[in-house]
Amino acid sequence: MKRFFRAVLLGGVLLGVTGCFDRHNANNKSGMLTIYGNIDIREVQLAFQDGGRILSLAVDEGDRVEKGQMVAELDATRLQMDVDRISGEVAAQVQSVRRLHEGSRPQEIERAKATVASARANLRDAHLTLTRKNALRITNRISQQEVDSASAQVDTWKATLKAAEEELALVVEGPRQEDIAAAEATLTALQAAKQLAEQRVTDASLQAPADGFIRNRILEPGAMVTAGAPVLTLALTNPLWARAYISEPDLGKVREGMRAQLQSDSYPDKTYQGWVGFVSPTAEFTPKTVETTELRTKLVYRARIFVCDPAHELRLGMPVTVTIDTTAKDSSVHPAECGNSTVTRID
């Protein structure tokens, strides 16, 4: 009896192996390669570049958003105050640079000239006083102290005249080039600070970087958020692909750019067009989540099959069956054939 059951079991195994072999041979003859995988998409963690209090969220989980659409906003009151403060500093520095470039005013030059003329007149008067006192000293009508005082007064007015003439030269020549360069550098720094403050106000409005769907709404209005902390999770709709696996015997039949057709259990009567975008150069063991009739221990090569889904019916993780016609002469496909202008081909 045991021998009978062993014979039946062995016969069943042989029939199964023979059937798989026959199906594999049939698959080779027809040129239609069938592989299995799951829909995969890229995700983006949307975050603010600066911290603050969330003022509003414009989207909810499941909402579809377009590139550039505002999805969240921070309270920018303090940021705008910073912009206003720096704008005032920039305006003041602009006037300082302008004043330096224009140089001295005519009135300032005339005042410096008048100071020089006054010093010269006082010097002449001091010389005359000294001459008279020297004559009086000869007849001993004044003391030597008065003569010395008159001589010191002459020296004082000489120094005053020299200082006035130097001041006149500086006023006529105008500001130093180093002072002008320093003022211009300060103005450039203030303008950069203003641009940074304005950019922070702009960054207080969080925008979607690409088309997609909101998967997670992590924070709510009123919450304090730090710079770089995720607020929303965006699932990108472009590109959309299936992560599938090709067995080693079939690897030589597939090349990048080949047409492919995908089917899912959710829409069994619908076929999605696609193409082979990438085939891994290294082998790996078949993941347990892949639905395939091949043995789990068999080495396979990961492939990325881009798919056209204008109606956005395919979801992340959805299992799909991929069929590739390896005998087709015109096996290349272009994203424009998807009927959706947003599909981008990435090989």
TrEMBL record:
Q: Which GO terms describe its cellular component?
A: periplasmic space
- Is the keyword Zinc in the record? no
The lineage's top-level taxon is: Bacteria
Q: Which InterPro entries match?
A: Beta-barrel_YknX, HH_YbhG-like, UPF0194_transport
Its keywords, alphabetically, are: Coiled coil
User: Is the Coiled coil keyword given for this protein?
Assistant: yes
Q: Where would I find the YbhG-like alpha-helical hairpin domain in this sequence? A: 87-201
Where does it localize?
Cell envelope
> Chief location of this protein?
other
Q: For the YknX-like beta-barrel domain, which residue ranges apply?
A: 243-324
- Residues annotated as coiled-coil are 147-200
Q: Which PANTHER family match?
A: EFFLUX SYSTEM COMPONENT YKNX-RELATED, UPF0194 MEMBRANE PROTEIN YBHG
Record's protein name: Efflux RND transporter periplasmic adaptor subunit
Provide the species name. Desulfobulbus oligotrophicus
